[in-house]
Amino acid sequence: MTEIQMTRACISAIAVLAALLASGSGEAQVQPKRPNIVVILGDDLGFADMGSFGGEIKTPNLDALANAGARFTNFYTHASCSPTRSVFLSGVDTHRNGLGNMDEWTAPNQQNVPGYEGYLNNQVTTLPQLLKDAGYHTYMAGKWHLGKQPDQIPAARGFERDFSLLDGAGSYWDMTNFTAAAPRSVFTEDGRYLTELPKDYYATKTYTDKLIEFIDAGRGDGKPFFAYVSHQAPHDPYHLPNDWRSRHVGEYDKGWDAVRQERLQRQIELGIIPAGTQLAERMWFIPDPVVLAPATRAVLGKKMELYAGMVENLDYHIGRLIDHLKEIGEYENTIFIVFGDNGAEGTDLFEMIAGTPGTRDFLFAAVNWSQTSPQAWGDPGSYVAYGPMWAQVSMTPFSQYKGWLGEGGIHNALIVSGPVVNRAPGSINRGLMHVGDIMPTLLEIAGTSYPQSRDGRPLPPLMGKSWGPVLAGQAESPRTERDYLAWQLFGNRALRQGDWKLRWEFKSLGKADWELYNVATDAAERHDLAAEQPAKLREMIALWDDYVRTNNVILPSRSPFETAEDQLPPRVPDDKGYPPLVYKQQFVPPPDMLAAPKR
Ligand SMILES: [Ca+2]
To answer: In 170-298, where do the E strands start and end?
Structure first.
């Protein structure tokens, strides 16, 4: 035993003793201790990546949380990082909380408009602030992405301890960022901007170490803690220690179609997706992998191997945190909430930025030069992402991916476990849930409530609904058939109510017009019902107009997707059996007329 292990063992023994003493005396007057809360965010982690959601990637620690608690298969985030995080931490709609657009893409007509600041604005209060006021310790480790100025950083927004990457992405090994205009990532620790990173820094490992350090340092005063573990993984670039890179060698050479089929099958067997669910179309610009040369498939497959390694490494470090909580006797009294912050990343950022007028200076051009040697993938300075084909695998069975408002952009996996979950262990729920529900849920669990005002300023209303009755097993959804959810990002728009979904997206992923889907029977959004159901369409558009009025939604005058159609191969109608050449069946001669060559 090391000294640290001995100390932990002693602490555990003392905790057990204290629990025994507490349970044996004065039952009635001992208030049950409020639960600790751990929120684990996977950055760009897909709906279908975890084993418990149908992935072949090995995630035993996350699956153990799923099996102890409940899985939710109808959970929505926003379509990209900072909008989702802003809603999670403020409980307020993006067009009011400052993330009406991502900071990186604020349009000319949105500049200087309240709600579009590009950071979590001071019109809102935050979940950690209210939990701190209610007597919780509040800790955060990982990516922030909600502002860099001194009054915008985690320490200014309610976190008592923090170790944070303020940028939206960057190297996992050092302070390298990936744009020429901002080549250095910015980090804070406990409210001070770091001049360098700790020795042996690797993002996923260091974030976990820091959080364990904060939890240990805060013990002893009996206060529960709220810990926000905002992992960078598995966001690109896929930076990964060498010994994690070779766990799936060759496994993905079979190509994306086969892996997507296998995941769908497992999802149906697990009950994640109803039997009979169809896969979304393979995006029309992605080839059928069977036509590719073996070497090409191996190189593209290696990208997915690296991604799978990223997720497994993430799971390993989450396991370290869970084990630590078990060692110190806090696991049983801890709620875990796990989700991916948006759909998997299918956009090649380099191509997108290079192809958007006026943004060429933004490039970190050396990125492309680092792609030449797959042996170096994962090393500092490399930049690998897996592309739309594997993003579709991560989002099985959905259509599209991060940034867009197809189900593949916003529909994600959610696990909740711990003392508040009174549902059958490992069970699956299909209630319509949203990331904005987390704030009212956790305030309720902490025994506090959302104030009407703060520092004399009225606060905007919460957009979500508490999961209390759902977690208690008394309800199947926090919302009625009339409640709706809505999204706007980069000019794309979507709305969900009951089984229905309304969508407007730029071409060619969208139609630059309203589309209507019944996602209860068509999760993959294959059948646009806008023409068949004009009354339902009008009703949904009226709700959209209500959303715009209520939240001051300003559609951007410029969008990173405005040239998407020009950058993609043309999309032609997909008529069954056309072109006939492709679908002409093999000619089979009469068997009695077959012959081998004579010589
Ligand atoms: Ca993200």
So the answer is: 187-189, 192-193, 225-230
**Does residue 188 contact residue 154 with C-beta atoms inside 8 Å?**
yes
Measure the CA–CA gap between 301 and 72, rounded to whole angstroms. Answer: 30
Place of tokens 């006939």: 580
* 139's tokens: 């800790």
Task: Show the domains of the chain with their CATH numbers.
Answer: 34-480 (3.40.720.10)
* CA 541 to chain centroid: 27
Residue 462: name the closest of 444, 474, 447, 446 by CA.
Answer: 444
Residue 521 tokens read as 């029977």
Whole-angstrom distance, CA of residue 187 vs CA of residue 143: 9
State in Å: Cα 87 to ligand 1 middle: 13
Element at 489 (helix H, strand E): strand 484-489
Quote the radius of gyration of the chain (alpha carbons, Å). Answer: 25
In the reported structure, the alpha carbon of residue 130 is separated from the centroid of ligand 1 by a whole-number distance in angstroms of: 25
Split at pLDDT 50, 70, 90, the class of 582 is: confident
Between CA 87 and CA 97 the distance in angstroms is 8
The amino acid at residue 243 is D
Torsion sign over Cα 62, 269, 80, 299 = positive
Question: In the structure encoding, which two tokens stand for residue 471, read together?
Answer: 């977690």
DSSP at 289: G
C-alpha pair distances (Å), 268 with each of 36, 127, 388, 428: 34, 36, 23, 12
Helix/strand/coil for 76: strand
CB-based contact 36:335 (threshold 8 Å): yes
pLDDT at 492 over 70: yes
Contacts of 480 (CB under 8 A, 6+ apart): none
Q: Which residues are catalytic?
A: 81, 145
pLDDT tens sequence across 386-395? 999 999 999 9
Least confident of 1-10, 274-283, 330-339: 1-10
Identity at 392, one-letter amino acid code = Q
Nearest-CA neighbor of 15 among 420, 325, 226, 321? 325
Q: What are phi and psi of 423, to 5 degrees?
A: -120, 165
CA of 222 to the centre of ligand 1 (A): 34
**DSSP assignments along 432-462, one per residue:** -EEGGGHHHHHHHHTT----SEETTEEPPPP
pLDDT, one tens digit per residue, over 372-386 is 688 889 998 888 889
SS3 content of the chain, % helix, strand, coil (to 5): 35, 15, 50
Distance 346 CA to ligand 1 centre (A): 12
Give residue for tokens 């949203």: 434
Ligand 1 center–CA 592 separation, angstroms: 62
Can you tell me which residue has the tokens 């604020």? 106
Pairwise CA distance, residues 97 & 99, whole Å: 6
What letter would DSSP give residue 28? T
3-state secondary structure of 37: strand
Supply the pTM of this predicted model.
0.91
**Tokens found for residue 10:** 């002693």
Q: How far apart are the first and last CA of the chain?
A: 79
> Could you tell me if 81 and 349 are in contact, meaning their C-beta atoms sit under 8 angstroms apart?
no
Exposed, middle or buried: residue 354 (CB in 10 Å: 0-12, 13-18, 19+)? middle
Give the CA count within 13 Å in the CB-facing half-sphere of 205: 13
